[in-house]
């Protein structure tokens, strides 16, 4: 089996440059040869101008453009471009004079064979430099745009991964906190050998199913979140007996709305944990309303005069989750008075399609 020789990238690049400058040489020969009779002299004359053209072009595309223009050092770019243009004109004039002298054996009467003016020749050289620089600038801009797009994509991917990790961490904090409170309630009933214990365990089982499996979903139906809130309240009623008064008003103009799982339940849990009895009763008022793809949630619980209504882990976590999941799409306000602790949440939800 024959192995095909591999052409390396540097070699390919060199061959492309040789081919390009060969075409430029032919271009110079054709335009400088108009009106002249000695084509070979015109070819040699054009060959004398190639070092100046190549040098000016490479200085422009490999130094001035990437180091100064692309990096937005405009003053230095303009200053060095003027220097480069002056050097280009001087070296071009010298090359023209030396080429004419050499090709005519210093017989100045034969120099008229090459009838093109020096100004036209210098303009032709500058034209090549400008055209090549324009293409190089376009290539650099496209490369920079591509790099910027790739960098933005990597930053966005990193932010998404960080967001996912942070959400998982917050959920891990919510789960043990919630379980700790509920298991304490079951433990208290078990000590009393209460008949409600099996029913309480069953409700806890339903909540655990929601907690362990449904919360892995990005969104759940708002009705599902409300059902588990009701289960949680039922569990707490078994623990508080006659010392608890909960009113819950739910108005859903659309039941096809979704929300992040475990978004409202920590607020409910917080009201039981940090609420206190007032006249022998813990009062909790809950209002949930969904209208025009907006969720309105309010919860108020009684506190004693000396109660510090701190949010604890659950409330702090829910604040962070709201910032992560609903940036610029929610309003959360917390009001504490001598008698009540109230939380009001308004956020834009999503239709469950």
UniProtKB/TrEMBL annotation:
InterPro entries: Bact_2-comp_sensor_kinase, HATPase_C_sf, MFS_trans_sf, Sig_transdc_His_kin_internal
Stretches assigned to the Signal transduction histidine kinase internal region domain: 166-244
Residues spanning the membrane: 43-62, 74-99, 119-138
Coiled-coil portions: 139-173
Pfam families found in the cross-reference section: His_kinase
PANTHER family found in the cross-reference section: SENSOR HISTIDINE KINASE YPDA
The protein's name: Histidine kinase
Source species of the chain: Subsaximicrobium wynnwilliamsii
Taxonomy of the source species: Bacteria, Pseudomonadati, Bacteroidota, Flavobacteriia, Flavobacteriales
